[in-house]
Write a structure and sequence with these properties.
By secondary structure, this protein is mainly beta. The protein is 11% helix and 46% strand. Strand 22 and strand 23 form a beta hairpin. The longest helix has 14 residues.
């Protein structure tokens, strides 16, 4: 441990006081209680109990805008609300899925259960009510996960003639409801993981004016893709000033590696705009590094990994990786930024353009330190000849240590999730020296 950290630890010990022991007797059952029902929900719940029995347990979606066990909406556009409720009972056999959904309607001002249905999964993930394509019909899109959480299924249905009518059932890895081609109508975009010998693929569903599904031809994703872990949406500018909506897919290509491919959707067909190939730049990197708008200009950047500048023998010297950020133009990647991506500590430091090919990074103890180096020379072991130190970046989770570091000249850049992100700018008096305002904008906490 260096002298600075020894000083910090001593200061922390001096400021520590003995706290009295605390005893907590509350269990998770008493601490985590379901939300109190509204008057309408209570009426719906009583109607459900009359149909399914008193021994029921309400189940809640895990994500989305509709997080209640009760989804109340006008499903058939008749001016009157219907309701669906997710629940489990103790009456299911071991072979039967215990998760159920009940459809309820109003008659004479009172709620009544119309019918109950089995579900396509063990847990309800999300509920959406959307129109699809050019058809005005309201669709209930129900997403489920299986017992292991790895498999997902979805059911698309609508309410007509007093019943929920299922129109589409899917198994998926990612499912998105979005206007993919910016034509004012919504599509259903899905991806499926690779299942040998079939590759991972993507496809789109929409409804025509008559209520029939139009499915785009399945697009096989690049061979290395085993699954899609993230879907992002952006705009691809063209040279003539126009723009095209784009779909960015971050996909797993190994246990800890990822790549990105870019698609567009038009006239009910997906097209590949960019995918890695042997004769072009490669987006291979650590799986935790995701496509994002790294510079806040409204356009997504795709990350790719390379060795920091100044190293020629990476196998023996174990240099840090530099993450480069690219925009997609006419099917090619154009590099916009270089950065240090700290996945473990949850931040990105975007390096100034003037540091290009003049600055490298090394790890010293638990800090990342940036040095100007001599591009005309190199050490015998293939490492760069370091010149002036420019910047030190550190992440600590002890407020006492964070305060002590600030007293030693470190700047507090962010405080988030119990971590303190700090940086120390070295006074070199050269154009390579950063300004405090510049550093504050250059560090982004993920």
């Amino acid at each position: 441990m260096n002298a600075k950290l020894t000083l910090f630890c001593g200061l922390a010990a001096a400021m520590t006081v003995q706290l009295p022991a605390c005893s907590f007797s509350a269990s998770t059952e008493t601490m985590l209680t379901p939300p109190r029902l509204t008057a309408e929900q209570e009426e719906i719940y009583q109607a459900l109990q009359s149909a399914a029995g008193a021994q029921i347990s309400l189940k809640y979606p895990k994500s989305g805008e509709r997080l209640s066990a009760f989804t109340v909406a006008d499903l058939d556009s008749d001016g009157r609300d219907e309701a669906i409720v997710f629940y489990e009972t103790g009456r299911s056999s071991s072979e039967e899925n215990p998760l159920r959904v009940c459809l309820l309607d109003q008659s004479g001002g009172k709620w009544r259960a119309v019918q109950e249905y089995p579900t396509a999964g063990a847990e309800i993930e999300r509920v959406d009510i959307e129109t699809l394509g050019s058809n005005p019909r309201k669709n209930l899109i129900l997403r489920y996960s299986m017992v292991d959480g790895a498999e997902h299924a979805a059911t698309v249905c609508h309410y007509a003639d007093g019943a929920l009518i299922s129109s589409l059932s899917l198994s998926y890895s990612m499912l998105e409801v979005r206007d993919l081609d910016l034509d004012g109508t919504t599509e259903l975009f899905m991806t499926s993981a690779a299942k040998a010998p079939a590759p991972a693929f993507a496809t789109v569903y929409a409804l025509d004016a008559d209520g029939n599904y139009i499915q785009s031809p399945q697009m096989d994703l690049p061979d290395p893709f085993t699954d899609v872990t993230r879907v992002s949406y952006g705009i691809l500018p063209a040279e003539n000033g126009s723009s095209t909506a784009a779909i960015y897919l971050d996909g797993m290509t190994g246990a800890t590696t990822a790549q990105t491919t870019v698609l567009t959707y038009s006239e009910h067909r997906l097209s590949a705009v960019y995918a890695d190939a042997a004769d072009r730049l490669n987006t291979a990197r650590s799986a935790g590094c995701q496509t994002m708008d790294i510079d806040g200009d409204g356009e997504l950047e795709i990350p790719g990994s390379s060795v920091f500048y100044g190293y020629t023998n990476a196998a023996e010297s174990s240099p840090l990786n530099m993450t480069n950020w690219y925009v997609c133009r006419n099917g090619l990647l154009i590099r916009e930024h270089a950065s240090y991506y700290a996945g473990k500590d949850g931040y990105v430091f975007v390096m100034p353009q003037r540091w290009e090919k003049r600055v490298t990074a090394v790890q010293e103890n638990e800090e990342i330190v940036f040095y100007e180096f001599d591009p005309a020379q190199q050490n015998r072991d293939g490492t760069p000849v370091l010149l002036e130190q420019l910047l030190r970046l550190s992440v600590v989770n002890d407020p006492v240590i964070a305060d002590a570091m600030q007293s030693q000249g470190y700047l507090l850049l962010r405080q988030q999730n119990g971590n303190y992100y700090l940086g120390a700018i070295q006074n070199t008096g050269t154009r390579m020296q950063m300004k405090e305002s510049e550093l504050l904008f250059a560090v982004q906490v993920l």
